[in-house]
Design goal:
The complex is a heterodimer of chains A (506) and B (501).
Chain A: H1 9-15, E1 16-27, H2 71-83, E2 87-88, E3 91-92, E4 95-98, E5 108-111, E6 118-126, E7 132-144, E8 148-152, E9 164-168, E10 175-181, H3 191-209, E11 221-231, E12 241-244, H4 249-268, E13 276-281, E14 286-292, E15 302-303, E16 310-311, H5 314-322, H6 328-339, H7 343-351, H8 355-363, H9 368-386, H10 390-393, H11 396-407, H12 413-424, H13 430-437, H14 445-458, H15 462-467, H16 474-484, H17 491-505
Parallel strand pairs in A: 12-13
Antiparallel strand pairs in A: 1-10, 1-11, 2-6, 3-16, 4-5, 4-15, 6-7, 7-10, 8-9, 11-12, 13-14
Chain B: H1 3-6, H2 9-18, H3 23-41, E1 44-47, H4 51-63, E2 75-79, H5 106-113, E3 117-122, H6 156-163, E4 169-174, H7 180-186, E5 189-192, E6 212-217, H8 220-230, H9 248-257, E7 265-269, H10 279-294, E8 298-302, H11 310-325, H12 346-357, H13 360-373, H14 379-402, E9 405-409, H15 425-430, H16 436-441, E10 445-452, E11 459-465, H17 471-489
Parallel strand pairs in B: 2-3, 2-4, 7-8, 7-9
Antiparallel strand pairs in B: 1-3, 4-6, 5-6, 5-10, 9-11, 10-11
Classes of the chains: A alpha+beta (506), B alpha/beta (501).
Chain lengths: 506, 501
């Protein structure tokens, strides 16, 4: 595939104004699915769930099966709607969106069409430099997820050229809320950054609401980015493209930027933009055409006759409103003040998508500095090696357990890193790993003194140097002791013992 | 003819309870009857392999002193539109040939819990689309009153089985008359309950907002007994009504004891007794009105002005919902799969499967419904049809301010010859004019025999309608009227069915 030509980004912004919009799908973490009592994989920690094990007749679209609305999913959706600053419809309605696709068991999706549960909201989003932008929300509506297709035998993993396809209906019927923004103007050269910041805000929001695990790498949170350009001075919006399933914060920023440059080149050389969906390629950093999409796509929507309208009483709405956590922007500002990091350090945490993990870890009693050390250091490194987010390989509880061992003097930092590596490799909890590997710091002074004596015997001049005030000479002994103890000694304690020996032997 | 197969379900229930009859005997008698008559009737699509086992188990539980439901041990035929995990379920369609569901419909579970003995699955028009059972993907069913005429549809199998005494009771489903019209054509009693009164879970959907499962029997009390077993709230059906259950059998027994109809206000629907009603049907209907008046009922004329648009609205709403409900038959997960030659895509396979598996009437309605829901046409067709529906509901509400029940002939004519309307779908649809308004309004309706036609000797049905949630009123008034007919004629119509040849 020939790479399309791109216009220089600054030149593109000089000629055109970007207008962006985002559709974010949030998989809710209710115990059961949107319309059936099948267990909800989006609520599970397990990564490899055997195909077609979380299913009921409805998930398979079997004849005679009927949907029943999950009350908890409705409450989660109302809470999310409120957090998005939306009005909640006293009566909303499900509709059928009809289209044929093998991952859609009934060949219609139960969604909300012209009567969504939440509409007309606004979310405050903070850019890297602290600028606040209000993102206007058009609507948030409830719907069900589709199953997953795996195409086998083709070169590309796409349906074209595949010999056969496998269908897993575990995801079919997982509760979704789709949040649709209005067209966002005025973000200019920061359109991509805004997209990243917006989705990260939604992620923080749903996590603090406790309604979704929001693991992007698992598809709990998925973003479609709409981009159009209009010539400077023009009032009418240009033709938009919709880049589907851009599933990391960084990719959102890159994909928006790419589309601006691609579209600018086409428009700048007199071409026209095709209204279509596009696929984002993480590896090459480009988008490629998907299917043509027009506003006249005919899904033959009609009210779902198997379900009654959803009623949200004012009592319910107000009780959910009263339980809302603070807004992501407020929370960020509060945490930044409480944790006392520099702006750069704090923003790095936000950009890494680790605010939620940090917040949770600190609320378990770990100091912000220690929490940051683990999440932004070793855990980020290990996660990066695996190509996942740090939140996937460890929990706040894990970090708390590890740091407690360090604080109690039972592990040195070096040992703690080893324990962490083993924990991520699935060897158990930090306590279990310490026990299994015999990694605990040797805190028995007798054993340490024996090792010190042995080291002193090999380097007899050290004690004299220490007595002369050259305490750094103890380093040689500490090194030898650590080596003898296979690292399981507390260096500070060894140093103290060596100095003590020098003073008492004098 | 064995006496056992002529027993009413209510009588069989008593005999089973007092020990004078075993379920095995009763079940065997009906299986024998099926053996003897199925060749001529074709009422069934599948037969249970375990009916006698079930019957024996019930007899044992009864012998052990267990307290059982009134209908425990009574055989029943089940329309093939209900999922049964022990019998193939096809909804009369080739696209589901050989498919055994992994689950039971809620109604089927309730029958099993009550200890009823399933005999088999009854024939029907494919996906309940039709009024003669000729649109079955398998074979037609013949009317026990005359093998050359249709038993009605879509539930012709259930009605014929009950009329011919293959089963004392059957389950039907009624979207636009599929219980009541076959009941009328076969001299049986059939009831479409209030929408939401009986669970639709596990019932293969035709039109979700209209479908309702109900009883078929030879007497009003028998239908009431079955209705009591099947009905009630089901958390698996969001449209199921969560109101406390009122005993239909108690209402029917109360009605059968009433001396007359004094104080009962009866409305005759002016729009459903005029043009299009055959003289022979009109004659029996007029006699019925006369009898009700003589027996103290206060009979007045009521208007349902928007009934004129009922058939048109129905044949937009039904195909629209059906076009979506039937989309799941795509060969991917169950049922027929037809793979065309060459290198077919998944769309090619879906298309070939649906082309082969669906019959003409189903295709006709899918196309119509797809069109009616299309962008740009929705408001004119589906939207307008829903408005008509609201107006018809209001018509009934106004009528029920004046009267307790509303009556009309169940069907414009008696059973028509097999083949008579197969080439003329509109004529077939027009015959539903009397039954459709009940489904659109969501109210309960009953058909019970009011005599035999002077013209062709075939049964003629009286339709009784009550306000939503007042199903018990239908059984109470229906049982009184049934007794008045029996006293007038000296027999019940169902007892006059000729021997099947």
């Amino acid at each position: 595939m020939a790479q399309p030509e791109l216009m220089d980004f600054d030149q593109a912004l000089e000629m055109f104004e970007p207008v962006v919009g985002f559709e974010v799908h949030v998989e809710l973490s209710t115990a059961t699915k949107m319309f059936s009592d099948a267990p909800n994989p989006a609520a599970m920690d397990e990564v490899n769930i055997a195909p077609n094990t979380c299913i009921t007749p409805l998930c398979l679209g079997l004849p005679g099966s009927l949907p029943v609305v999950n009350k908890m999913a409705v409450e989660y959706s109302i809470s999310l709607g409120l957090a998005l600053g939306c009005d909640i419809a006293p009566v909303s309605r499900f509709a059928r969106k009809n289209y044929y696709y093998p991952d859609l068991a009934k060949n219609y999706q139960i969604s909300q069409y012209d009567e969504p549960i939440a509409f007309e909201g606004s979310v405050s989003v903070e850019l890297d430099d602290g600028t606040l932008i209000d993102v206007p929300i058009e609507r948030a509506h409830m719907e069900e997820d589709a199953g997953k297709l795996t195409h086998v035998g083709g070169a590309t993993g796409r349906i074209q050229g595949a010999e056969y396809s496998l269908v897993d209906y575990n995801r079919a019927g997982v509760p979704l809320v789709e949040i649709v923004t209005k067209p966002i103007e005025g973000s200019e050269h920061r359109a991509g950054e805004l997209g990243r910041a917006y989705v990260s805000t939604i992620r923080d929001m749903v996590r603090s609401l406790g309604i979704s695990h929001a693991r992007m790498e698992r598809g709990n949170l998925r973003c479609d980015a709409n981009v159009s350009l209009r010539p400077r001075g023009s009032a009418a919006y240009g033709t938009r493209t919709e880049t589907k399933n851009v599933n990391s914060f960084r990719s959102i920023e890159r994909a928006v930027r790419y589309e601006i440059q691609r579209q600018a080149h086409i428009l700048g050389s007199g071409g026209t933009i095709t209204q279509e969906t596009r696929h984002w390629h993480e590896d090459t950093g480009v988008t490629s055409p998907g299917r043509p999409k027009s506003d006249a796509d005919d899904y033959r929507y009609f009210p779902e006759p198997d379900l009654l309208p959803v009623e949200a009483t004012s009592e319910l709405v107000e009780s959910l409103r009263a339980q809302l956590p603070e807004q992501p922007v407020e929370m960020r500002r509060r945490l930044r003040a409480e944790w006392g990091f520099s702006d750069v350090d704090f923003q790095a945490i936000v950009n890494a998508g680790l605010l939620g993990e940090m917040h949770e870890t600190v609320s378990l009693g770990v100091t912000a500095t220690a929490a940051r050390k683990w999440w932004m250091g070793e855990l980020s490194r290990l996660a990066n090696d695996q190509g996942v987010e740090p939140g996937v390989i460890a929990t706040a509880e894990d970090v708390k357990a590890l740091q407690t061992l360090v604080d109690d003097g039972r592990l040195t930092d070096t040992l703690a890193r080893e324990v962490l590596g083993a924990m991520v490799a699935g060897e158990g909890t930090p306590e279990e790993i310490v026990a299994a590997r015999g990694l605990e710091v040797v805190s028995d002074d007798g054993a340490l003194l024996a090792a010190i004596d042995e080291a002193l015997a090999a380097q007899p001049d050290v004690l004299g140097k220490i007595r002369e005030g050259k305490t750094q000479a103890a380093g040689a002994i500490i090194g030898a002791v650590m080596k003898a103890m296979r690292g399981q000694a507390d260096a500070a304690r060894v140093q103290a013992l060596v100095i003590e020996r020098a003073q008492t032997d004098a | 003819m064995s006496e056992l197969i002529s027993m009413r379900a209510s009588a069989a229930s008593k005999a089973l309870q007092d020990g004078s009859l075993s379920s095995v005997e009763l079940t065997q008698a009906h299986l024998d009857r099926m053996d003897a008559t199925e060749g001529a009737l074709g009422a069934f699509l599948a037969r249970s392999a375990t009916a006698l086992e079930t019957a024996a188990a019930i007899d044992q539980r009864r012998a052990a002193g267990e307290s059982l439901s009134p209908l425990a041990g009574v055989p029943i035929a089940i329309k093939d539109v209900l999922c049964t995990k022990d019998m193939v379920t096809t909804a009369g369609s080739r696209i589901l040939e050989g498919w055994t569901p992994p689950y039971d419909a809620t109604v089927v579970s309730k029958l099993r819990e009550a200890g009823m003995v399933a005999l088999g699955k009854t024939n029907m028009d494919e996906f309940a689309m039709g009024s003669s059972t000729e649109h079955s993907g398998y074979h037609p069913t013949h009317n026990p009153w005359d093998p050359t005429v249709a038993p009605g549809g879509s539930g012709g199998g259930s009605a014929a089985a009950v009329a011919a005494k293959q089963a004392p009771l059957a389950v039907g489903s009624d979207t636009g008359g599929s219980i009541r019209q076959p009941a009328s054509f076969t001299g049986t009693v059939g009831v479409k309950p209030t929408y939401g009164g009986v669970s639709r879970y596990g019932v293969i959907a035709l039109a979700s907002s209209l479908d309702q499962v109900g009883p078929v029997s030879r007497t009003v009390l028998d239908s009431a007994l079955l209705h009591d077993v099947m009905g009630g709230h089901d958390p698996r059906d969001a449209t199921s009504i969560p109101t406390p259950w009122v005993s239909m059998a108690a209402a029917a027994e109360r009605g059968a004891r009433a001396d007359n109809l004094t104080g009962v206000r009866v409305g005759v629907v002016r729009e459903l007794v005029g043009e299009g009603i055959s003289p022979a049907v009109r004659q029996r209907f007029d006699e019925a009105v006369e009898l009700l008046t003589q027996q103290g009922a206060e009979v007045v004329e009521v208007n349902l002005p928007h009934c004129e648009y009922a058939v048109a609205a129905y044949y937009l709403i039904l195909p629209a919902e059906a076009s979506s409900n039937l989309a799941k038959f795509d060969s991917v997960r169950f049922g027929l799969r037809v793979t065309p030659e060459g290198n077919p895509t998944v769309e090619d396979v879906m298309s070939a499967t649906r082309d082969t598996g669906f019959g003409d009437e189903v295709k006709r309605r899918i196309i119509l419904g797809t069109y009616a829901l299309s962008a740009g046409y929705y408001d004119a067709y589906y939207g307008s049809a829903q408005k008509v529906r609201t107006l018809i509901q209001q018509d009934f509400a106004q009528a029920f301010e004046k009267v307790d029940v509303v009556i009309s002939p169940s069907t414009p004519t008696t059973a028509f010859p097999l083949g008579a309307k197969m080439e003329d779908p509109l004529a077939m649809w027009a015959g539903d004019v009397t039954t459709i308004p009940v489904n659109l309004a969501g109210i309960p309706g009953m058909s019970l025999p009011m005599g035999l036609s002077a013209e062709d000797g075939l049964p003629v049905g009286l339709q009784l309608m009550a306000p939503a949630y007042q199903d018990a009123r239908l059984y109470e008034v229906g049982a009184t009227i049934e007794r008045l007919f029996e006293e007038r004629d000296g027999y019940l119509v169902s007892e006059r069915v000729p021997e099947v040849k």
